[in-house]
Amino acid sequence: MLKPAAQNTAAKQRIAKSRGGRPTRTAALQRDLRLLDVATRLFMERGFDATTIDAVAEEARVSKLTVYSRYTDKRGLFEAALRREIERWMAPLSRGVEERRNNPANGSLESWFVGIGRQVQEIGTTPEVTAIMRTLSFQAANFPELARLAHEEGWGRAVATLARLFDHLSEQGLVRVSDSMVAAETFLNIVVGPLTRLTMFGIPIDEKNRERQLRLAVKLFLTGIRPD
Fold first, then answer.
1. At the fourth CATH level, which superfamily is domain 24-71?
2. CA angle, 218 as apex, 215 and 224 as ends, to 5°?
3. Which segments within 42-97 are labelled E, that is strand?
4. How many Cβ atoms sit within 10 Å of the Cβ of residue 149?
């Protein structure tokens, strides 16, 4: 059994080895997060073509070899950034839907749809989302699989998440829809579609009318799906 002094020496040697050799798991995780943060920001600020692996590596304070060891090429790096952003965008919607399913008596149906509509609008019109969507639009011809990924994992998942809620509400007799997926996509198109087009073209949103239009859209939508 090692004496305390010998144990301290051995511990110091292990620490020195981790510092001089491969990074610890925590350090590697922090490095990877920093790398993805930097890449995401540069893709949003500069677009896909103007963002280089050299620039990402320099700002993230890692070697190019590290970048290529984690992501095969720039396309792979962009895909990783896109997937992470989609998860961030989806989280509030998923929480909102689950909250409504678990607490059906928490507010009227109309007020809930106004709330979730407001949330979807805020997410869909942020500068970050707009920048990513513009980049995807420019690169869709070169990387159609990335555009498909954004549609299926972003828009498609949002539709499916809301569709599950419509199924739940239909079972409770609160709404009547023949196709929950169509109902969910229609709701999202009504609520966020026009605003997304404005932000994509750089046209300012009239904030004074946004809330009024949202409430009217929800009222019209619910009128069409409420039981007679």
1. Homeodomain-like (1.10.10.60)
2. 145
3. none
4. 17
**DSSP character string of 160-213:** HHHHHHHHHHHHTTS---S-HHHHHHHHHHHHHHHHHHHHHTTPPP-HHHHHHH
Q: What is the pLDDT of residues 106-133, one digit of tens each?
A: 678 899 899 989 988 988 888 888 888 8
Helix (H) and strand (E) counts in the chain: 11, 0
* Lookup: tokens for 143: 């990387």
Contact 133, 196 (CB under 8 A): yes
Task: Please give the class, per CATH, of domain 74-225.
Answer: mainly alpha
- Give the tokens for residue 57: 């590596």
Degrees to nearest 5, angle at CA 209 with 44 and 131: 5
- Here the contacts of 36-39 (C-beta below 8 Å, separation 24 or greater) are 36/80, 36/81, 36/84, 39/77, 39/78, 39/80, 39/81
Phi, psi of 87 (to 5 degrees): -60, -40
Model pTM score:
0.77
Ordered by start, the domain boundaries in the chain are 24-71, 74-225
CB atoms under 10 Å from CB of 66, counted, come to 17
Classify residue 21 by its DSSP letter.
S
pLDDT tens for 196-218 read 889 989 899 988 889 999 999 99
